[in-house]
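Journal club side-thread
Mid-discussion, someone asked how the predicted structure for our own chain would compare to the paper's figures. Pasting it here so we can look after the session.
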Amino acid sequence: MHWISERPLRFLLRLMEKNVQQIWTECLHVLRDNLTPTVFTTWFAPIQALSYDNNVLVLQVKSQFIVEYIEENYLTLLSKVLFRVLGPQTKLEYRVQIDSHTNAGVNIPSDVSQAPVVPAQLLQQPDLREEPEFNSQLNQSYTFETFVQGEANKLARTVALSIAARPGQGSFNPMFIYGGSGVGKTHLANAIGNEVKRLMSQKRVLYISANTFQLQYQDAAAHNHIPDFLLFYQSIDVIIVDDIQYIAGKRATQDTFFHIFNYLQQSGKQIVLTSDRAPKDLQDLEDRLLSRFKWGLAAEITKPDYALRRDILLSKMHRDGISLPMNIVEFIANNVRDNIRDLEGVLAALLAYSTLAGKEIDMELAEQVVGRIVEIKPRERSLADITDAVCEEFHITPTALFSQSRSREVIVARQVSMYLAKRYTALTLSDIGRSIGDRTHATVAHALDVLNSTLSKDVALGQRVRKIENMLAN
């Protein structure tokens, strides 16, 4: 790289005879010699020179993002080029284009020796809202109405509702939603977008995965469409980026997203991000991005607890017109514990198996289906825990339970004890019989058959059994 630090006076006299297009063309020639073809074509070739008066060169660019990017990454080079072509007294101003069909714009002065901080109120963008078909890419079924609230997601849902009512106006910008797979992050993020569209239909809302953003950026760079790419994203009012962790290690994408993030936030636009981990745990992301992710609110959604899992099942059943015995709902909620997708998968599989087999959904079928999706881990409860809970619910003493009493209440309590012992312990039927009044294997098997039949008809008894199971689950 060669630079000329001194020029004779006759060169300055010739410069006065040149028009602004010739001056800028000369600058571009020097820039081209010192940049890669891709960088030159993307960032400098589209720039137009508007005027050169009183040592002030005015350049027209397509967006304020380009101003920021050039001054952050190529200011030293640009300063040397202007010094070489125009002399040390040169001042530089940018005019950010508002309408691609006119020269209207906003002047942004720049000292070529120091990149300025451009006030957000000066930034203006094309009004693209007249486009008739803007696809927000939102899942229309993911709304706040279909998002079941529980302890695992209460804070995140409350903040999300606040954001949807006043996007970009509160302190929760960005909102960073994080948690394990299948806990409802994508659902909640889409719910924000759908609610904004419902309340403020004129808002441009976009949902996009980080992976898709990365692919779009690569395509734009490959086809020299970066300015159009930037203009599009700067026009968004609410941007929702799912699985932001996927831009880790992709420096060029991170750099572009950083500038888009800055522009949107300075312009009062809302940013919603989701990730499988907290900002502090993200790897291979630039520190300046991570610091911005922490500016707003990081809200965790944890694994759903038993109550939330049950409520999600009931809500899904209600929406889809599915009817299941409550003991089967409780069984699914007890065993499918990790995420919501598995819960929905079990319901879909139960319906499919039931339809194909032409039989009602019973506990046997539920156990088969759940066992294919998750490992059913019997809850380790001692027989003493079970009999104590049963005695408490039926208001009888352990002595009565283990006796030969033929009282209806005692018989039912004894059958329930055997039923729960079979479900929640590793005891054999013979072991259960010996422990509950020294009864035989056949007696226990008969008691289980009778109770299963009764539970399919007696709603009140089913409720009592579920109450005991809930006691054992706590």
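Post-session note: The chain is about 55% helix and 10% strand.
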